[in-house]
Amino acid sequence: MEKHIPLLTPYKMGKFDLSHRIVLAPLTRQRSYNSLPQEHAILYYVQRATPGGFLVSEATGVSVTAHGYIHTPGIWSKEQVEAWKPIVNAVHAKGGIFFCQIWHVGRASKFEFQPNGEAPIASTDKPITPLTLQDGTIEAFSPPRRLATHEISKITNDFNLAARNAIEAGFDGVEIHGAYGYLIDQFLKDSVNDRTDLYGGSLQNRCRFALEIVDSVAKEIGPDRVGFRLSPYSDCLDCHDSDPERLGVYMAQALNQYQILYCSMVEPEPVKIDGVLHTFHKLLPMRKTFNGTFIVAGGYDRERGSEAVREGYTDLVAYGKLFLANPDLVKRLEINAGLNKYDRSTFYTSDPVVGYTDYPFFDQSGH
Ligand SMILES: Cc1cc2nc3c(=O)[nH]c(=O)nc-3n(C[C@H](O)[C@H](O)[C@H](O)COP(=O)(O)O)c2cc1C
């Protein structure tokens, strides 16, 4: 059996000695009641932690306006910081390296989640087209309010405070969530950003908000504890760009100036050809541009992940759905075991066990 597949080789990410290349991708699970991380998250993260393994937390709100989905955690209050501590400690006790993904949803929110029922804030006042969910229900977000230029630094500061809080909670660093159509992406992409001030128009202006956050957070906690996540090819929440490669390369280049630890990028959706899923390594120009650790995600399995590391296309591979459904994914990939299938219907349900910590380990599932 091929034991030392490239995914299982050690890697030094800044000051962190990783024992393998398999990363827990950030996964929103909506089990943090009233935005407070719960005790059941200890087991969930510990199940997925390995000695020298790198984990990124679920997206975690930076402020009271950052919130858009029920039971997603926050890290703006003292109480939330305290609630994160036992979770982070438990991951550390198992030898894991744990970053907190810090997040502002922007216009992906509703009046009911906002202080005093106010409008969600965004780069624009254009609303998101209502989404039809898998069960046929329609998810409609509330019309947003365009941030005035002078308000933007306040949001940057919220990211800053959240990063400081994450360190206080014991996290090893933070990942700034610039992906999937949330606030930062609402500034980055030209389908949404219709501003005429310094934060809109040219590519440089659209990236300004993201880079001000990076600058500020890197100064606050040190660049060696900061990652940035970007999904140039995604069109989630109506956020798409007319030139994703140019956007991705510009950001990769700009991020170099801050010497942050890593850049995590999401592949375009894999395409099925003759029954086989293909990814096209569209992130290669960004990989070549960025000087720090590069992480890819999106449709990776054992074979494609190994190939990506072997070819030098990436340093690390983040696994989302496979890690969600396989708490011992690292072990399973190592021994080339079968994988549990994920159940989409429980991705975002609030049960503290079902679809969360009850996916079987390899020796329990018997295959
Ligand atoms: C249930 C679920 C929740 C997710 N939550 C987040 C999140 O909080 N932050 C984020 O950046 N990406 C999130 N993602 C995207 C994943 O991190 C990952 O990029 C995506 O699932 C593609 O990787 P995969 O094909 O290995 O699942 C989520 C994905 C799923 C399935």
From TrEMBL:
Q: Which GO terms describe its molecular function?
A: FMN binding; oxidoreductase activity
- Give the family this protein belongs to, as stated in its UniProt record: Belongs to the NADH:flavin oxidoreductase/NADH oxidase family.
The entry's protein name is NADH:flavin oxidoreductase/NADH oxidase N-terminal domain-containing protein
User: Keywords for this entry?
Assistant: Fatty acid biosynthesis, Fatty acid metabolism, Flavoprotein, FMN, Lipid biosynthesis, Lipid metabolism, NADP, Oxidoreductase, Oxylipin biosynthesis
Q: Where is the NADH:flavin oxidoreductase/NADH oxidase N-terminal domain?
A: 7-336
One annotated GO biological process: jasmonic acid biosynthetic process
According to its UniProt entry, this protein's organism is Rhynchospora breviuscula
Cofactor(s) it depends on: FMN
Per the record's keyword annotation, is Transferase included, yes or no? no
Keyword NADP among record annotations: yes
